[in-house]
């Protein structure tokens, strides 16, 4: 039995469900298969930045700020590896404490450790 893949916090372009479905499943129309894997979330102590000339953002550690996104729990190691493959050398996987949000946008009280792709200044 293979180990359960580590969850991670996604923000930016991967929050677009058709893109996420394409990356994980290979078909952009299968967003309904992803919904059980996602929970609205926020990570504190980081700021999301736009990158000049690029279509994707960067998260950089920044005290007192937070980044909204999703907690994603991949079902398979293959799904996790597919998403890891999208991130280039400009990002570093960093453990973060992710606060889960309810449908109302308020914290549920659940805080879960997950990986976060943090921008590495090059």
From TrEMBL:
All copies of the Gamma-glutamylcyclotransferase AIG2-like domain together span 8-119
What keywords are annotated for this sequence in UniProt? Signal, Transferase
Q: Which SUPFAM superfamilies match?
A: Gamma-glutamyl cyclotransferase-like
Q: What are the boundaries of the signal sequence?
A: 1-23
Keyword Lipoprotein annotated: no
- Which Gene Ontology molecular function entries are recorded, alphabetically? transferase activity
- Keyword presence, Transmembrane helix: no
**InterPro entries per UniProt:** AIG2-like (IPR045038), AIG2-like_dom (IPR009288), GGCT-like (IPR013024), GGCT-like_sf (IPR036568)
**Entry-linked CDD domains:** GGCT_like
Regarding protein family, the annotation reads: Belongs to the gamma-glutamylcyclotransferase family.
Write down what this protein is called.
Answer: Putative gamma-glutamylcyclotransferase
